[in-house]
Amino acid sequence: MIKTYIRASWAALVIVLALRSCLAAGSHAAKLEGKAEDGASGLARRSLAAPLAPQDDTLYDCQLLGVTGLLFNITVPTTGFSLRNVTFRNCAAGALALSAPDSSPASASLTSLTFLANSNNATTSYGGALTLSGPLSATLVDCTFAANSAAIGSAVYSTAGAATGEGGLTLQRCTFAGNRGQGAVAVLGGVLLAVRDSVFANNSGGSAVYLSRTRDQGAATVLYNVTFDGNVADGTGLSADPASQLGNSGGALYAVGALAALNVTSCSFTRNR
Ligand SMILES: *[C@@H]1O[C@H](CO)[C@@H](O)[C@H](O)[C@H]1NC(C)=O
Ligand SMILES: *[C@@H]1O[C@H](CO)[C@@H](O)[C@H](O)[C@H]1NC(C)=O
Ligand SMILES: *[C@@H]1O[C@H](CO)[C@@H](O)[C@H](O)[C@H]1NC(C)=O
Ligand SMILES: *[C@@H]1O[C@H](CO)[C@@H](O)[C@H](O)[C@H]1NC(C)=O
Ligand SMILES: *[C@@H]1O[C@H](CO)[C@@H](O)[C@H](O)[C@H]1NC(C)=O
Ligand SMILES: *[C@@H]1O[C@H](CO)[C@@H](O)[C@H](O)[C@H]1NC(C)=O
């Protein structure tokens, strides 16, 4: 009974960070903490006892937490959002979604995050681990995404910057390995500013990087010093359209539609098919 309450409330939670201190100070956070002590493991207890947004230096395992929905769905306030040294594991409907509300551009600084074995496996599902949207500038540094899966965007699904061209995604020193779906990184309609000093290896089920109708901010999307190795587009076509080439074209990179210009410099492409 008690557990059901905690699980349901986590699964349904939409977190507005602007309200965070208010919520954390209120009885709701205290209630979560108290109830979580009933038989939960140390890990689950630590996580459930946290305020209603992810905390630095923490491991979140959705299986241990009993969370079946998206773990964190955060509306980023104009003051921004940052997170460091966090692992998200075993979430079955995505781990983290960050969005900036229309007409409220915001930024997110994500450092040393690891996403392992998260998924969003329905055939129409987008974003196995991390989803970004709205006028959001998201910068991921030193990240690892391994063994995540989704139909589109097995690791990262971003439409950030799609509506207004404000914001966009930057990846630096990131590794994407063994993710499965169309696009370990999928940017649809949004802005991909740059991918630097990163590795895409052994991803399958589609293209390692999937770009569709991307926008720009007056400069080309930069792929610099990125290694693409052993990525395989062995998916089966993920759209209802039988002519769809999604999932079976462009093992390393698949870019379609009227795109932002691409500047691919000092990258290596090996064993992709
Ligand atoms: C990162 O977080 C883990 C807990 O998940 C902690 O044990 C470790 O010390 C942290 N690392 C750093 C550099 O703070
Ligand atoms: C996350 O929150 C946004 C904004 O409130 C909402 O539109 C979206 O449906 C939510 N996603 C999920 C999976 O609940
Ligand atoms: C989603 O699919 C992947 C790849 O087929 C699999 O490894 C993973 O266990 C599935 N996740 C769930 C929750 O079924
Ligand atoms: C290129 O990226 C790799 C990581 O994939 C890094 O180890 C290396 O130092 C980078 N090279 C340069 C010239 O920055
Ligand atoms: C990719 O797979 C190859 C061959 O199995 C392996 O040698 C390599 O370490 C893998 N790369 C990553 C980053 O996991
Ligand atoms: C492409 O990117 C490289 C590395 O960031 C930069 O040195 C170069 O000037 C860019 N080229 C163009 C045509 O924008």
UniProtKB/TrEMBL annotation:
Species assigned in the record: Gonium pectorale (Green alga)
Signal peptide positions (record): 1-24
Domain Right handed beta helix: 79-236
Keywords: Signal
Regions annotated as coiled coil: none
Entries under SUPFAM superfamilies matching the protein: Pectin lyase-like
The organism's place on the tree of life at top rank: Eukaryota
Protein name stated in the entry: Right handed beta helix domain-containing protein
Lineage of origin: Eukaryota, Viridiplantae, Chlorophyta, core chlorophytes, Chlorophyceae
